[in-house]
Structure formats: C-alpha cells, structure tokens
C-alpha cells in the first residue's frame, strides 16, 4: 500500500465530508452552520490543494482545478461571513447565511467532482 496515495485520498475525502457537514441543514438558519466547521473545511481543502501540486497528468490538472475552485468558494464564504459579522455589522441574517451556504454548496460540488475523478482514476489503474 502506498502511504502517499492513502494520505492524498484521505484529505480529498475529508475535504468533501467536512464541506458536506457544513452545507447540510437549513440554508438560511445560522444554527445549522458552524463557523468552525467552515474553518476546518477551508484548512483541509488547502491541504488537499497542496497535495495535488506536482502531478503532471491531465487528471492531476483537473483535480488541482477542482480544488482551487473549492478553495475560492470557501474563502469567499468565510470572507462574506466575516464582513457581515464584523465589518458591516449586519450579523447572520437569513439572506447572508443563504449566500454563505450557497458558496459552500459550490465548493461541495467541486469536491464531489474531485472525489469522482479520484475514483475513476483508481478504477482505470486497476485494469
């Protein structure tokens, strides 16, 4: 068993599950979405992105692209939450929370594509 591939796959799947955990719940209900879970999703997605550097295959390029898209969405969600809570003083209104969760949903979709590509790559290598 290749330890590098285990760690790589672990972080890709962990990024997906953390993002899903943040995304699930009422889209406009702040009680269903934890800021620390968003932070954990961001950190794990950044780690997964770093692990994807160096792969010079076409699949590696697409994996890196999906990871960058997920990072962009999650960082935008965190920025929006920070500005609403501290900068503008609006707080966690239903409209703000819906926008934050929608951005996390975009990241979730990118993470799903990443996991599907990982599974396809594993299936192709087995043959």
Explain this structure:
The chain is mainly α and 127 residues long. It has helices spanning 3-23, 35-52, 58-87, 94-126. It has one domain. Helix 1 runs antiparallel to helix 2 (35-52), helix 2 (35-52) runs antiparallel to helix 3 (58-87) and helix 3 runs antiparallel to helix 4.
Fill in the keyword field for this structure.
single chain, 80% helix, 0% strand, elongated, mainly alpha, 127 residues
Entry summary:
The chain is mainly α and 127 residues long.
Q: Assembly state here?
A: single chain
| Helix content bin | over 70%
Number of spatially distinct domains: 1
Uncertain runs are none
> What's the β-strand tally?
0
Order of helices and strands: HHHH
Helix/strand class: mainly alpha
Radius of gyration: 16 Å
Question: Main beta sheet: strand number and arrangement?
Answer: none
Output mean pLDDT.
92
Proportion of residues in β-strands: under 5%
Number of helices: 4
How far apart lie the N and C ends?
17 Å
Shape: elongated
């Amino acid at each position: 068993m290749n330890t590098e591939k285990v760690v790589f796959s672990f972080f890709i799947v962990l990024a997906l599950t953390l993002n899903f955990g943040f995304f699930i719940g009422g889209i406009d209900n702040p009680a269903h979405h934890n800021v620390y879970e968003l932070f954990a999703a961001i950190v794990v997605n950044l780690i997964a992105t770093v692990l994807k550097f160096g792969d010079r295959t076409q699949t590696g390029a697409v994996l890196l692209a999906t990871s960058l898209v997920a990072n962009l969405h999650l960082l935008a969600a965190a920025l929006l939450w920070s500005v609403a809570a501290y900068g503008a003083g609006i707080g966690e209104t239903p409209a703000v929370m819906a926008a934050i969760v929608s951005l996390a949903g975009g990241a979730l979709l990118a993470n799903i594509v990443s996991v599907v590509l990982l599974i396809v790559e594993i299936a192709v290598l087995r043959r």
